[in-house]
């Protein structure tokens, strides 16, 4: 075509400089991409928003939009979204009656079942503070009964005080007369969900899903002791590092670091 560059650019509405200058990324883009990919390898079930939050926590001044652009450019796959859940309605037509309003207002707890590499089953007792989303404890044993529930809650009551309500399902370990009587004796109230309605314990169900998706489905446990150590390590990461979408992509209980010059001196 015997048409000048000037005329072509005028017809297409493009500036002539676009024909000469190649777009270049920022000077720090290679290091940013490397850090992003490393976090993606480490936390393979995280999407770009959580990765962006972790990058900011590591010192990068970067927004979600830039991370998403680099994420897609590198061909990283966003984990499949969880199916949406409908709003909870009770049998009487009323919506959820008990919502957490402050720390230690409502705790919830539930079991998760898994197996070690030899095929033997073990269970975890997961206890959460529904308001802060913090996982207060995960007890891992081959068998867990109502006595174990009482022991786990006793330890937490000593450390954190007694919550106003404790929410659970209607499993035999939870509705055992000993558990119910003990909870009442320490001054808390029970909030059992409707039978056959696990979505009413939504905070614990969501946590259990994250735990299975991000940890249990990707680990081989060769012994119960190994499972206890790895699960406890994941619980600490969940509380102190893992960005939580419901908390503005902040962890439920971030670690507080006290500078050396502000620490009390021993006399």
UniProtKB/TrEMBL annotation:
Tell me one Pfam family matched here.
rve_3
Q: Which organism is it from?
A: Shimia sagamensis
Q: Tell me the ranges covered by the Integrase catalytic domain, including all copies.
A: 96-259
User: Know the name of this protein?
Assistant: Transposase InsO and inactivated derivatives
Q: What Gene3D superfamilies does its record include?
A: Ribonuclease H-like superfamily/Ribonuclease H
């Amino acid at each position: 075509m015997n048409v000048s560059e000037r005329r072509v650019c005028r017809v297409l509405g493009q500036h002539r400089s676009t024909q000469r200058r190649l777009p270049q990324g920022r000077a720090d883009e290679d290091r940013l991409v490397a850090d992003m990919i490393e976090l993606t390898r480490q936390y393979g079930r995280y999407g770009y928003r959580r990765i962006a939050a972790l990058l900011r926590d590591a010192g990068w001044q970067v927004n979600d939009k830039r991370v998403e652009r680099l994420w897609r450019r590198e061909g990283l796959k966003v984990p499949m979204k969880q199916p949406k859940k409908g709003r909870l309605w009770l049998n009487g037509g009323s919506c959820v009656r008990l919502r957490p309003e402050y720390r230690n207002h409502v705790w919830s707890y539930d079991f998760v079942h898994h197996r070690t590499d030899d095929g033997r089953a073990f269970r975890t007792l997961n206890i959460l503070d529904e308001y802060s989303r913090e996982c207060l404890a995960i007890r891992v044993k081959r068998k867990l009964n109502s006595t174990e529930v009482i022991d786990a809650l006793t330890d937490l009551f000593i450390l954190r005080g007694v919550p106003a309500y404790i929410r659970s399902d209607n499993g035999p370990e939870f509705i055992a007369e000993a558990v119910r009587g003990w909870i009442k004796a320490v001054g808390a109230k029970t909030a059992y969900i409707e039978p056959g309605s696990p979505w009413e314990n939504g905070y614990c169900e969501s946590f259990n899903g994250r735990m299975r998706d991000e940890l249990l489905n990707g680990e081989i446990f060769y012994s119960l002791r190994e499972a206890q150590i790895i699960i406890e390590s994941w619980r600490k990461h969940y509380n102190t590092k893992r960005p939580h979408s419901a908390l503005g992509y902040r962890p439920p209980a971030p670690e507080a670091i006290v500078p050396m010059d502000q620490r009390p001196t021993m006399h």
